Amino acid sequence: MDSIFNEIFTHVLESEVAELVSLPEFIYFTQRDNPVSNTPEFMKVMLTLESVVKSSSHLVRASNIIEKRAAEDLEAQRKEMFGSESTESEEDKESYISKISSDLLDDGEDFICNIGSNPNLEMAKKKSCNSCASSRTQSVFFKDEWGQTIKERLNAVFVDYFIDSATTSLIASEMNKTFKLVDKGKRGNYVLFYSPLDCPYNVYYGTSCGSMFSFVKRTDYRFKQSLNKENALLSGENVDCAGYVIYGCSTVLTLAIRNGGLHQFTLDANLGMFIMTATNMRTPTKGKIYTINESLAPSWNSVVTQYIEKKKKEDRLDYYQTGSVVSTLHYIIKEGGIFIDPSTEEYRHGETQLLFAAIPMAFLMQECGGACYGGNGLQDVLQIYPQTLHETIPIFFGSKEEVEGLKELFSKSNWYFAKT
Q1: 7-22 burial string, b = 16+ CB within 10 Å, else e?
Q2: Cα dist. 196→90, 154, 211 in Å?
Q3: Is the Cβ–Cβ distance between 240 and 217 less than 8 Å?
Q4: Quick check: helix, strand or coil at residue 12?
Q5: Which of 105, 237, 293, 378 is deepest in the core (most CB within 10 A)?
Q6: Phi/psi at 379 (nearest 5 deg)?
Q7: pTM value?
Q8: What is the tens place of the pLDDT at every residue in 255-287?
Q9: Helix (H, G, I), strand (E, B) or coil at 239
């Protein structure tokens, strides 16, 4: 067994990872010939993004540990006050939650202020010290509400950092109904679209979840003179950069720059920086898994049903489901497969938000050799123009062979992907 570990260790030392190429170094040295990324403003966007992800990672990790501590303390307090077989009322629950809230807040502050000293994390510490423990105690019986609170905290981290970065003019979050307009003195040339945390209740269980984002650069005169949603609702063909973050056993940032390939960076907690761990990633042309909400199978159209049955019986693809679209996207990029969010009777326009998920995923697929279609099953997602900020569409993406196979079925059928 020792010899196996020695082989792995030697391989790591001899690989490019041992060179410890940081995210800023990667952008500066390998993307300098790319017209999208060879500007000081883009480098500033990347540095801001790095700080956002560090802070978000810190917040997710702290939230998870404090949640576990809060749950244990609450249960112990409950047994002490009411006994193990008690059936206390809602008023009783509120009573003992209030009783230990101050103690949990103190514990939360001590914990968060001691688990890291990286200066880039100071904002996350300030935002989370007075919220993680209290939000957990207030909704200890409702994990979804608690997950929503964590999502709101990450949402605030994105907004605060990018407003101060002077790189964005408009910021749009999956959680907000409208755009956030940056003050004139701090405006830059980018529009940011982001989803702060998908499947937030995964944090409650300690499983992986993630964030997704894309940047659109606008330098035309009309945009600068009239900042409004009509100028910012653009197709994916205008995206300069997109990516996602996985929060799990490690924090992984996967980033694509237009015509610059897809690259992966992993947060080194000791160094406090992102280190390149994979470069020019390519997804396999043929997949190993499929992902779809099979509980909605009775309302699929015949093309989707036919395709799924074929994948099960003939191609022997495995079913894969984590609840997190970001985690599924990460797996498909690495191992190949297909994700399908079809139109159904309940969700006639699908469940995937065009600006906050579909376009970033399509951009990433394009850069790593995959494919992504939506709408009627024949439309390139990057060519679909959004009509509203929170518009949803049916979508399927993944390994090129798998995706093109489903698209071919739609091209030969009278059934459209999106039911009308």
Answers
A1: eeeeeeeeeeeeeebb
A2: 32, 6, 5
A3: yes
A4: helix
A5: 105
A6: -95, 130
A7: 0.79
A8: 999 999 999 999 998 888 899 999 999 999 998
A9: strand
